[in-house]
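sanity check this record:
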Amino acid sequence: MADENKGPQGEGAASQKTKKINRMTADEIKKKIGDLESANQTKSVYFKHLLQRKNEMEKPAAS
């Protein structure tokens, strides 16, 4: 598991693969949701987390 992040090739791919949902922009989240829907992976936990984060971002901030 630790080996997949080592090496010059693994660093770029791993950073793209493991980007935190909290750090994604709304556009990135929409793109990922679309990608997962087209791949028919709407029952995955990752997809559910993306939807949850999207809903959190759409809610107005309470003062």
User: Anything to note?
Assistant: The chain has three helices and no strands. Residues 22-63 form one domain. The radius of gyration is 14 Å. The longest helix spans residues 45-58.
